[in-house]
């Protein structure tokens, strides 16, 4: 059972300040999506706002009922909070809940993007690059950028991992700077070449 079309239009109006609201089949009902983030769920004739981060804390503090979903005989508590009838009649409060939900969903998206940023997705990098760097203790994009191309190259060289050479140094520098290695700025390329020859000579002595 879905909510009446009048209620759906009301929700669309409340969420309209954030962008176009879309719906997609979900849990036997449908979820409401804005900016690629789920913000609400309609199921069994009830409307639930999605609660994550600070929105979850607030919804639980004020005692909103959490969605209990049965899957393969197991009851699961989900982070969706039922909006009671009295809130539907109190638009300013409903707008506050909607805003809380949207802001929390956007922040969660940003946090996920930071955590999920993988080395293999950077320019010049692939799964083999990610594995090789992982073997020398560099697991995340943030660590790669913090350590820098030269130190990363030396770590790979020290442990004799992966294919070594000036091309790899260019690829590491490009990954950090956001360039394909073929279009690295000339000055940066020359600096890396000079450094590479110094390191190469010192290691061969």
From TrEMBL:
GO terms for biological process: establishment of competence for transformation. SUPFAM superfamilies: YgaC/TfoX-N like (SSF159894). It comes from the Bacteria. Residues 117-195 form the TfoX C-terminal domain. InterPro entries: TfoX-like, TfoX-like_gammaprotbact, TfoX_C, TfoX_N. Pfam families: TfoX_C, TfoX_N. Residues 14-105 form the TfoX N-terminal domain. PANTHER family: PROTEIN SXY. This is DNA transformation protein.
């Amino acid at each position: 059972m879905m909510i009446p079309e009048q209620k759906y239009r009301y929700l669309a109006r409340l969420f309209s300040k954030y962008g176009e609201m879309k719906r997609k089949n979900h849990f036997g009902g449908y979820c409401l999506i804005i900016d690629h983030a789920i913000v609400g769920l309609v199921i069994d004739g009830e409307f639930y706002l999605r609660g994550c981060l600070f929105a979850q804390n607030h919804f639980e503090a004020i005692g909103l009922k959490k969605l209990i979903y049965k899957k393969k005989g197991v009851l699961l508590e989900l982070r969706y909070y039922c909006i009671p009838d009295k809130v539907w009649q109190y638009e300013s409060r409903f707008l506050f809940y909607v805003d809380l939900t949207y802001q929390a969903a956007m922040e969660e998206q940003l946090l996920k993007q930071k955590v999920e940023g993988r080395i293999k997705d950077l320019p010049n990098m692939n799964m083999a690059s990610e594995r090789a760097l992982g073997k020398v203790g560099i697991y995340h994009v943030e660590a790669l950028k913090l350590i820098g191309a030269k130190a990363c190259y030396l770590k790979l060289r020290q442990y004799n991992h992966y294919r070594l050479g000036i091309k790899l140094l260019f690829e590491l520098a490009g990954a950090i700077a956001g360039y394909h290695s073929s279009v690295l700025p000339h000055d940066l390329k020359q600096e890396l070449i000079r450094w590479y020859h110094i390191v190469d000579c010192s290691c061969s002595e």
